[in-house]
Amino acid sequence: MRHLRLDGPPEVWWLANSTAVAEHLRRDGAVVIDGDGLCQDVATFQRLAAAACGPLAKDNPEHNSIGDDPTGTINSPTPFSRTRKLLWHNENTFARMWPRRLIFGCQEIGDGGQTPTADMTAVYERLSSSARDVLATGVTYVRRLGMDLGLDWRQVYRTTDPAAAERACEREGATWRWDERGGILTTEQRRPAVILDPATGRPSLTAQILHWHPRALDEEIHDSLRLLYEPHEFPKGCRRGDGRPIPDGVIDELVEICSDLEEVVPWKADRAIVVDNLRRSHARNPYTGVRRLLVAVGDLVDCAGLARP
After folding, report:
1. DSSP letters along the chain, please?
2. CA 169 to CA 157: how far, in whole Å?
3. pTM above 0.90, yes or no
4. Which residues on adjacent β-strands are paired with residue 106?
5. Spatial contact of 74 and 278, defined as CB atoms under 8 Å apart
6. What is the pLDDT of residue 11?
7. Is 286 within 8 Å of 113 (Cβ atoms)?
């Protein structure tokens, strides 16, 4: 992964270096940028994010917003236990609109907490033919919103009106149903799992399977959930695109391959990483101490229009 040095105003630097950055992204799927003060001032980071990933998405309900960003485009990473590894995923690929690019910026590093990335074209090449067959029909993501665990549908859809939430599901191309008391909204969204990487034409496993499948849960968390719910009642789950289960063996295979192929760039203050989200997945290692990262996503594309093998 190439390391570059930002030595001027972000938008000016990007204009002068955009061709070289694009080539690094085409070759590696990610690029590292260091610059004095780059991430300490949220406005400076926002200008780099807008140049690298714009137009930026706003008000992402999956992330916490940064209070001193008036644009609503800069967030903090998804809240997750600092003692466990957050597994590899391509951001927001359960939704209809996928970010082509995302950017992370480091304000404080803590101890650990690296953001490993994995080239999902290389992961796909390593998959067994049986795993490829399982994923060929795509993935159906199942979400239960309004349980004691996970997000509430009011937060996700930014409304208290059930009818407005239903209309949002329809715009996403999701099916939906309410429980008999009307408090829990269950949605199902069928998305591609394998696309042709627009930069190289190679098949890429671009998905969030390891965030949704029960097999990928930490054993302690899985066992705690099982005390309360049956697996089909977990806050999140996923199946093949045709509705059949994704075997646990496919999940084990994915974890093993991603673990073997991941690349880890150490964080330091004022370091940013631009990622091609259609090609590279990212994870997060456990950490201690204070870890403060910024994140932005942008250049959204309708996944229905992406080429597939």
Report:
1. -EEEE--S-HHHHHHHHHHHHHHHHHHHSEEEEE-TTTTTSHHHHHHHHHHHHPSBP---TTSEEPTT-TTS--EEPPP--TTSPEEEE-TTTTSSEEEEEEEEEEEE--EE----EEEHHHHHHHS-HHHHHHHTT-EEEEEEETSSSS--HHHHHT-S-HHHHHHHHHHHT-EEEE-TTS--EEEEEEE-SEEE-TTT--EEE-S-HHHH-GGGS-HHHHHHHHHH--GGGSSEEEEETTSPPPPHHHHHHHHHHHHHH-B-----TTEEEEEETTTEEEEE--EES--EEEEEEEEEEEGGGS---
2. 9
3. yes
4. 293
5. no
6. 92
7. yes
- Res 199: pLDDT: 92
Tokens read off for 255: 């974890």
Give Cβ neighbours of residue 236 (< 8 Å, ≥ 6 apart). 141, 142, 143, 144, 150, 211, 212
Lowest mean pLDDT among 21-25, 217-221, 239-243, 266-270: 217-221
Kindly list the strands in the beta sheet with 271-276, ordered across the sheet, starting from the edge strand earlier in the chain.
2-5, 30-34, 271-276, 97-108, 292-302, 75-76, 64-65
User: Within a 10 A sphere around the Cβ of 113, how many other Cβ atoms?
Assistant: 22
